[in-house]
Fold these 2 entries.
Entry 1:
Amino acid sequence: MRYVIFLLVAMNCAYFSWQVFLNVPDRPVQRSLPPLPPDVRRLVTLEESTARRQPPSETRKIEDLTTTQPPEAVLPMTCQAIGPFLAESELKPFEKRIDRLGLTASPQTRYQREQVGYTVLFPSMEYKEALQIKDKLEKENIMAYFIGLDNVLSLGAFRDKSRAENTLARAQALGLDPRIEPGYAKRSTYWLVFQRRDNQDGDLAGLIRKYSGLRVEDMACP
């Protein structure tokens, strides 16, 4: 009888264990927390905060930009020119000096109109009248020739104003009325043009100190 009771107890324990095993879910139970009040902010990690402020794609763009364009590449550029040189052959020595300062220069030719003396002339007139004046002057050994297509009669170009005034007086003594005007010519000058960033220091003033007439000019960058 005692063994029968033990057997019944063992069967009941086995049945109870079997029922507990059947009631255990295959997946863990996920318990949801109650929602936070609207005036409470959820705590986030530093990584989450950084990712929200700056997407990974933006971070990659900044890294690529830093690689292709280092910080000094975005510094503003200043364009300058050294000159004027009167002969193109004078540029080579200065190109080498500028190169030693870490700058690359390129030659530039400029044209300027400058006064080179004086001219004595008559204003535009009728061709027949101009011929009469020309004949009258040449009889007194005063050379005269036509300028352009407007019958302008010139008595010559003079480097010194005193010589121009002397010719003017001789023509006035014949009852004529020419005038003195400045004479101009187009002259070529040569410059060295270069670009530098604001963090590039070079003793440009010391470079040209020994050469009178040279100067450094700021200019618009191309």
Entry 2:
Amino acid sequence: MQVHRSHGIDVQVPDASLPQLQGYLAQPGRPLKALLNRKKVERLADGRFLYASRPYQLLNFQLQPEVVFRSSWDGDQLTILFEHCTIHGLGRFQDLVQFQCQAWIRPEQERLMAKADLSLELSPRGAGFLIPEPLMQRTGDLALRLVTDRLEKRCRTGLRKGALNWIARHP
């Protein structure tokens, strides 16, 4: 069973020109460290990054996602693609859950347009066989809502602040 969610956000960056915002996004590490806890982002080779999220609570589970993702700038938008995600804290359900995300940040005059497509696949085999499908669906929806809420908060605070600070230093 799969649960999907798409989420978009318009991040206002007052007085920022399109070339300034393009410059900010052109080095993927800049916006990624603004979006995520910079102490937990590790740059790997070939535009790839490793990120271990802080733990959070979902139902009776203390979850901590760890993600390897690729990020690239093509001149028009920054693309972020999850290559591998492990969700620690699921116990015997660990192998039953697969999380995928692809996100884009596109600059426009005085704003950044961010969009994410997320999916969570919950396998009904093994221990998942014991969970009724409606409960799996609701749990998947709740998990994706928590992720999009967190992403939106990070865009409205960290990404915006990072862009404003960078633009102030690069008029």
